[in-house]
Amino acid sequence: MRILLWYWGRRGGGAQFTLGLAQSLATRPGVTLALSVSAQGELLDSFRNLSVSTNIVETYRDLPGFATGLLRIPALRRQLLASAQGADVVISGMTHVWTPLLAPALARAGIPFVPVVHDALPHPGDFGWAWDWRLGRELGAARAAVALSDQVASILAQRVPALPLIRMPLLAMLSPATAGGEAVAASREGGLRLLFFGRFRGYKGLDLLRDAFRRLRQAHPGVTLRVVGEGDAEALAPGIGTLPGVRLERRWVPEAEIPRLIAEADAVVLPYREASQSGIAPQALAMGVPVVATPVGGLTEQVREGAGGVVATAVTEAAFAEALSSLFLPGRMAALRAEARRAGAAQADWGGATDALLRGLGAVLR
User: Could you tell me the CATH superfamily of domain 2-171+349-365?
Assistant: First the structure.
């Protein structure tokens, strides 16, 4: 099977997922892989190291670059079509702002297009302008779609009942040094270290975390919380950065730093009010770091009791504080770490996930 894997985003979860998929596809017997990636991508060197045919496309780094880039859409369309010539299928690793402008050209040229759909609906509080139009254009051009959670698959099935769906999990991106939980550090004496990591968005429940942590700290004064990500955390959860025990870091975290950031935590917290799935959950579990989450969306598929997860009973301050408090029960952390290590291999099983993807593509293309 000849596959063109296409992703023109610069950084973040889409780039990480596309790289993981590219690394796995590049090793599969019977697959000839080609790439189309952004020259401005944070992981460009990693894509180049795969030693497969790679089309490197000039995209943009800032708003003026995006605006002038729109003028290049006809040329970019021709460039994409040229890269796709001879491919049995073009897979989009994640939507990009230009994807809906270019994907229909693939369908018109008779080239099967299969997008990986990370989110089937806009997250509450996120900028959702033109969301429906964008997704509609991509699904309208698609021969099939890949869903990364049952929740997303269900929404897509309702929206486009006739479109074939391929189910694939969102997996961890691991380096050899962090596989199997080897980098997990021991708890600091005096309390546990909690980590919230990711872009600061309204649906991620920073205000819920703030109030739950305040309760937790009263009962366990030694506990600490590290909040790391890009965005305005104070606008979403006023006062979170001034709480005793909280360390707020407003910054983008480079790809190479993520494993160390997780390894320095005793548990990762996901106090989300809504979620299609989480990229941080499989990464943490694959490293043997427990995850505390709310019972929403795709998180219920990724974070499970008995597999290194603690799931709150409700999406409330009190319920999340209770879930966090359970970490302090005698023997609880040791048991959670052992569970996460046992279940962690499945969180990094790119081989199995890629085989499922290829079976689905084969059925669609036949």
Answer: Glycogen Phosphorylase B; (3.40.50.2000)
Structure tokens, 343: 């279940």
- Return the pLDDT at 277: 87
State pLDDT tens for residues 288-301.
999 999 999 999 99
Please name which of 294, 325, 320, 315 lies closest in space to residue 212, comparing C-alpha atoms: 320
> Which residues, 6 or more positions from 25, have their beta carbon under 8 angstroms from its beta carbon?
3, 5, 31, 33, 354
- Report residue 166: phi and psi, to 5°: -115, 125
Q: Could you tell me the pLDDT band of residue 174, with boundaries at 50, 70 and 90?
A: low
2-171+349-365 matches 179-347 in fold: yes
In the chain, where the domains are located: 2-171+349-365, 179-347
Task: State how far the Cα of 323 lies from the Cα of 313, in Å rounded to an integer.
Answer: 8
Please, are residues 140 and 105 in contact by the beta-carbon 8 Å criterion? no
Per-residue pLDDT reduced to its tens digit, 336-353: 999 999 888 888 889 999
Architecture of domain 179-347: 3-Layer(aba) Sandwich (3.40)
Q: Which residues pair with 147 in a beta bridge?
A: 117, 167
